[in-house]
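Re: the 311-residue chain
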Amino acid sequence: MKKLLKVGTTEWFHTNELSKNEISELAEQYNLHHIIVEDMEEASTQDKIDVYDSCLFVVLHFRKFERENSMHITNEFNCILWKNYIATITKMKTSIIERIKEEYTEELQEDKEEWNDIKYKVSPYYILYRIIDGMYDKTLSGLRFFTNDLRSIEQNIFRQNINTTASLEALLKKRRSIVAVKHCIQPQSEIITELQKETEKLYGWDLDVYFEDLLYKIDKILALVHSLQEELDSLYDTANTLTNIKINKTMKIFTIFTAIIWVLTFVSGMYGMNVKLPWQDVEHMFYLIIVMMAIVIWSLLFYFHKKSWLA
């Protein structure tokens, strides 16, 4: 596990993925509970916070937006919080950890002369706060890209000669993605509230302002998700309605075509029989039949037009 930085007595370790051997070494070095070891070895499916005598173990899930596929994927975040150490593990590589490290280092350099007054900033807890806060900011940023994609889909839906079936498929993927974001973020309010209580016990500081900030961002994300869900439902219903209208128009054209063809088939079928028929010996009768069939076609089209079936 790589040491990202050391500030005073506070040390921050991070890795993208740990092998079983590395987890075993970490467990032996810090005397980790076997449940923590099991959770780190296997992918967790739910957020949790476990409290132990000397540390806290936190599991959170964040949705990472992939612009290539326009989809949100889950990135699991594990954190072990001691009095003077913090170890963070993400299942997938993320640029936000390095960015937070740089921002945190710059912030400490600016406030170096006031360290005695802001000891909470030189602590594993504050690093954890900055990470979670950064993850929420990244989630909000991903939702803004998501919103832009919706605008593009909306324009395609109302554009002429656009395949609305493709738009429906895209909207279904978006609906699944936004529901996943909601289910990912919604349970974290309880985790953050519990984390607030336990960090106050561990560090003895009043850190309400930071937790309130995190809870505010959770509410902001959920409000945006709710708004996007309503917009997705509305766009899906609109696209579905437009698709049905197109299908109905196509079926109407096929019905009209079938009606005309039926009359022409009847006439041609009658004069194709091997029996004696009226006017079969009349010169130019073939051309007269063609004219008669053309009149029938024109009459039917005029009738359908009057009935507004061709509108």
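The mean pLDDT is 80.
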